[in-house]
Design a protein that fits this description.
single chain; alpha/beta; Rossmann fold; Dihydrodipicolinate Reductase, domain 2; 2 domains; 16 helices; 19 strands; globular
Length: 491
Amino acid sequence: MQSENINTEQIKSSYTERFTQFSEDNTKFENLTKTHEITTEKKVPKLGVMIVGLGGNNGSTFAAGILANKHNIEWECRRGVQKPNYYGSFTQSATTHCGYKLNEKTNKLEDVCLPIKSILPMVEPNDILVYGWDISNKNLYDSAKRAQVLEPSLIDNLKEHLQEITPLPAAFNGEYIASNQADRCTNIMTGTNRDKVDQIREDIKYMKNRVDKVIVLWSANTEAFFLPGIQTTEELYSKINNNEDLPASVLYCVAAIEEQVVYLNGSPQNTFHPAVLQLAKEKKSWIAGSDFKSGQTRFKTIMSDYLIGSGLRLSSVVSYNHLGNNDGKNLQEDKCFQSKKISKAGVIDDAIKNNAILYPKGDDKVDHEVVIKYVPFVGDSKRAMDEYSSLIFLNGINTISSYNICEDSLLAVPLMYDMCILAELFTRMEIDGEKLGPVLSYLSFFFKAPITNRNEYIINSFCRQREMLVNFLKAAAGINPDDATLLNYRF
């Protein structure tokens, strides 16, 4: 690998990829190499993030977190005076192993672990400008009070900043979310589908005039699946122009694509129909999703890696949640819950698929159940219980149970920062002269149900997703991804 940083405007890296290609029956293989030229624009733009669901738990916490860090707002709780941070953010708080150095005093090797944010030029979260839409007209101070995610003293210390932000009117179709959301609907766009798409585009253009680059992030209610899927762009535009029944998420997504800005889908509904992917390709825009993978589901991908990777046959996974925030309230209706159940169901598939000894063809079923209940008293403090049962030696049974209490939005929001920061970075990159996209599949680390470009395959494994992402960042920066054999240092 070689990196050329002489150009003050670009980072250029020549990376030789090594991979092994097997025959159809796995009896023969060939070790191959392919050299890629990776170019990254160095200039970091002023970024604007427009959130659909700005006044919700995640949206108000997203804005408050940036403001607290930007203005160094402290607050007091029962544990004393607290200071803001970005804990839980992969880009801001995680490191990755990049190499070794020799300690001249001890003559021993030491690991070099660099912050993810230092590998390539990335947006600073404190510099992000936040705006967006919501079906409620409450300003973000009142929204944060309603959400009950943050400490009241922190919200009060941010009052001056949060009161300045009132969400824009939102596109809305009540057929696709729970009827219990009706009391929040005080800030709704009027007009036809085309009117709404055009208005969303005007809102995005307004933000474009204030920043260099815009990302649209869906963090609103989980919608019911839209079936059957929309197959062609002609069919998509026919439904829009003829004002046929469409979920609001599709309208936001089309508007973002037409404005050539990134659209990230943080909920599990099937917004990305084949027609939407084709439109993104035609417009040279970017999309990624679906459904934030922050707590219980991310843990599930790690556990399946651990159990199956240890040679145990994971046979039953039962996940139970109860929560009291508005997400839980919306998921009371079965049409919305089914979207969530589908996105959670596939996260262990590739761990199973990759072990034909434990899961031979025709015998690869795992009992996987997901239950979500709405309990208003617990608020945003979600309870998640999982039971993992595996067949072990001589068909004995090993069961591991976990119980997790998590503040749901405080886990999800740092990942929202990450996916916006990395999505912006990826729009500045080219591989062998081609822009990434239309699907930013390197963001799959952050989604329960990642979508991919046509010729790619989906990875859900936590370890493989993380390795793929950090190795790509290192390759673009001219740093060799870890070999991990340590042969040079042992022999």
